[in-house]
Amino acid sequence: AVEGGKAAAAADLIGKAIASRKNVARHHDDLGFALHALGKLAEAIESHKRAIRLDPDNTQLHLNLANKLLVAGNLELKPGVEAMLDLLDELELPRAIATSSGHSTVKHHLGEHGLADRFHHVVAAGDYANSKPAPDPFLMAAQKLGVDPRDCLALEDSLNGVRSASSAGMM
After folding, report:
1. Tens digits of per-residue pLDDT, 56-67?
2. Could you please report the per-residue DSSP string of 44-70?
3. Residue 87 and residue 83: Cα distance in Å, rounded?
4. 128 closest CA partner among 171, 170, 168, 169
5. What is the pTM of this model?
6. Upper half-sphere CA count for residue 67 (Cβ side, 13 Å)
7. CA distance linking residue 155 with residue 164, whole number of Å
């Protein structure tokens, strides 16, 4: 297994791939291939650790590759997202994305749905010291927005994300 939080990040990637696939049953082969590729990637990282000293930058490079394999195409926007963003625009409320994914992944996802300009800030992996469930990503997002975290509402799709937002003092 990949060390520390890297295994959790890989599991998070798998969860996001499953949640974002259109008609998972129809794309079973694609998902199976992605899961197989992620498994092979984890094996490769383990074997290369014996030959080279694996620093966090290289680990992130491997995880970015795994993410690209998992999110290649067929991303479905969750119901209600555009309506919610329209309402936030109407109310002139600032918003940010606080994610454990990398900036390139976020840019890809938002670009695929034409949402890149709908968020005031993106806080992604590498922008903070400690990943979710630590509060760092959400605290950084609130700071960038110039808003007290206690005045923020966080929308999350993972237990670690909920724990992170809660420990940052957000609703």
Report:
1. 555 556 555 555
2. HHHHHHHHS---HHHHHHHHHHHHHHH
3. 6
4. 168
5. 0.59
6. 23
7. 11
